[in-house]
Amino acid sequence: MKYFKLILICFIWSTTWAVIKIGLDRTPLMVGLALRFSVATIALGIIIFLKRRKIAFDRVSVQNYLVVGLLTMALSFYCTYWAEKFIPSGLTSILWTAMPIVVGIFAHFMLPDERLRLAQVMAILIAMAGVIVILSDRQLVFGRELLWGSVVALFGVVVSSWPNVLLKTRPQPYDSLTMTAMAMLIAALVNFIGATVGGEWQKMVWDFKNIGAIVYLGLFGSALAFYIYFDLLKQINVIKLTFINFISPIFATLIGALWLNEIVTWREIGGMLIIFFGLFLYDKDKYLAILKIKDGRSTHAR
């Protein structure tokens, strides 16, 4: 069941990159985020009410809400949305494949059982080389805005990775549903304030395309996907969970090319393959275990 959930998240997050791009056409950045997280919070709030879940307000739980809400939801998503104003949606998804590497680096220092080995350090260097190959593509990075968009997207990856590992260090278990709802409520409030102070509400175009993008991103890309994500975070290895970033960029790039007519260059494809090769080497034993192919014999996934 947990691997079915993993596949479902891959499918949803393969489409969100293009939908973000579509919505940003005439939706101010912080307005889009405020409405997206509001829709998600309302949906999750209804589920919490129906399930009669209690929302914890102890010190550790509140810290979790704030860390995930401010970093993973508010700041990281702001970076991603801002980046997609200047770079293709497919490229954004490819840059997010760096997340397993960043998570692994944080895990090395924060989780005693997940220290980096020499082979993993080499894999990180290979993946970084793939990113450099992509950013060196003159057909993509032909101006300062595209370059900065890529840098900001990568910063969003770093910001989002640390809370994933932090939650693994918590001795106290958390409720996936309530934590996701509270974190998104915090992100919604932050972006509502930012959109109001910045005067973005007057610039919003309330048409079917924009509203549809917000509803899809709120219900599926946020409420459903993140609820499943944080639930899986309690069940499987933190690095294995980031296998999501190994699959969705392929489909996200295809969707961007088909839906949005985005340019996909050979150097971009090559860089993506180099990153994937680095990711595979980084944790190849676990990936082979998932496929039940290790040393030519069947094995059980760890």
Question: What does this protein look like?
Answer:
The chain is 75% helix and 0% strand. The longest helix has 26 residues, at 59-84. The chain contains 13 helices and no strands. It is globular and about 45 Å long. It has helices at 2-23, 29-51, 59-84, 89-95, 99-110, 118-135, 144-169, 176-197, 208-233, 238-241, 244-260, 266-282, 284-290.
Describe the secondary structure blueprint for this structure.
Layout lengths: L1 H22 L5 H23 L7 H26 L4 H7 L3 H12 L7 H18 L8 H26 L6 H22 L10 H26 L4 H4 L2 H17 L5 H17 L1 H7 L12
Keywords:
75% helix, disordered C terminus, 13 helices, single chain, mainly alpha, 302 residues
Short description:
By secondary structure, the chain is mainly α. It has 13 helices and no strands.
What is the SS-derived class? mainly alpha
First-to-last CA distance: 15 Å
The share of residues in helices is over 70%
Following the backbone from N to C, one meets helices and strands in this order, namely: HHHHHHHHHHHHH
Spans with pLDDT under 50 lasting ≥5 residues? 293-302
Nearest-integer average pLDDT: 84
- How many domains? The number is 1
Main β-sheet, in a few words?
none
Name the beta content range.
Answer: under 5%
- DSSP summary: helix tally: 13
Radius of gyration: 19 Å
Broad shape: globular
- In total, the number of strands is 0
